[in-house]
Amino acid sequence: MTAVNSGPRPAGTIDRVRNGLVGDFLPLLVDLERSSGSHLWDDVRGGPVLDMGMFFSSAPIGHNPAAVRTPAADRALGAAARTKPSNPDFATSVLDTFVTDFRRVMMPDAMTHLFAIDGGALAVENALKVAFDWKGQVADVTDPAELTVLHLRRAFHGRSGYTLSLTNTDPAKTRGYPVFDWPRVAAPARGEDGGPDPDGDELTAEEVAAVEEVTRILAADGHRIACFVYEPIQGEGGDRHLSGRFLRAVEALCVRHEVLTVADEVQTGGGLVGRRWAHEALGLQPDLVAFGKRLQVCGVMGGRRVCELRTNAFVTPSRISSTWGGSLVDMVRFSLLFGEIERDGLVERADRTGPVLRAGLDRLVAGSGRLLSAPRSRGLWGAVSVATPALRDAVAAWALDEGSCVLLPCGTRSLRWRPSLLVTEEELTRSFDVVDSALRATGGRP
Prior knowledge:
CATH class of the largest domain: Alpha Beta
Number of domains: 2
Number of helices: 13
Strand content: 15-25%
Distance between the termini: 48 Å
Largest sheet: 7 strands, mixed
Oligomer: single chain
């Protein structure tokens, strides 16, 4: 490819972008051509920046990976970029390749239907529409306005219509917008304040109380509840790891009351947790799975009880659809990236490399003088809590400004790690060293 940028650009370029477009821009001007692997190239400082965020976990194998830099990749991406067909209505060979690759690499056997759309929130929203349609037919609901969605506290499912009624993390994201009063229950988890091992066998007292709360709600209103939607790990809510034992208990109750289960894996899907999907790692059997981010393409997979209804929304014409049904360019990129992920066993590599991340987080916490706490991880997905929100923000700012390392916040006082599936032990170690130096420099520790 021909390079577009040829050298450092003034910081004023960032100001022009900020003044012309709504966004929460970091003080970086990213050179897409020179960024590589686990490093962004920043044109402002004229050098590389170690990236532990990967565009909010949407670059699965890093920046400018070899898979997208071959002549064949150039041709495939260029051909897909020259037009933007309405995919739900016009089949192409590109679409065929994507569907074939996605079903082979990412779809569990129990998932039989696939729907694509732009944006993670709309992926969740269409999963809810499938559930509303299913419940309306199965329970013979005469007034769809009576249908509700059971969901968890501290959840983030997006900022569009239906999902605004589910999201309840930062009030700034929902305040003042009309929402539905749908049932919301406790979400016991290992999170910012620590908590029990999410992989243990016995329900904790907090989980028992939450299951009892769900039991009461379903007994009273199960005939109105279309689905239970959950994130296996609540990322925006503070990297809160829900346990398989808790979610399986709720899943069993939902089956009993004819309520579908929806795994929102927009953030957790794609291999970073050491499995294709977090629900697989937790031993869950969702009826619907929303996906996006790392997979380049967003959408919904459906199966299990959805398919028991022959007239479900996946098979009824125009019941769910959109003009574009996702982007062909994104679909080509998925096939290129996940072809390499499949060929080189990178999901399995994430599982093997996960202990390196966790050991580093544990050492950081142990040496922080109680300024860090609650190390938590699954595969290469990790986080630590910082003593205060102000110190968290100061550490993240120093890490970028002085340590040339992107570490993104989550929850009220946590730092998260979302590296590439190809991250090295040396790169992880450097990120830990930057946090340690940041704590010293910001006055957090001597």
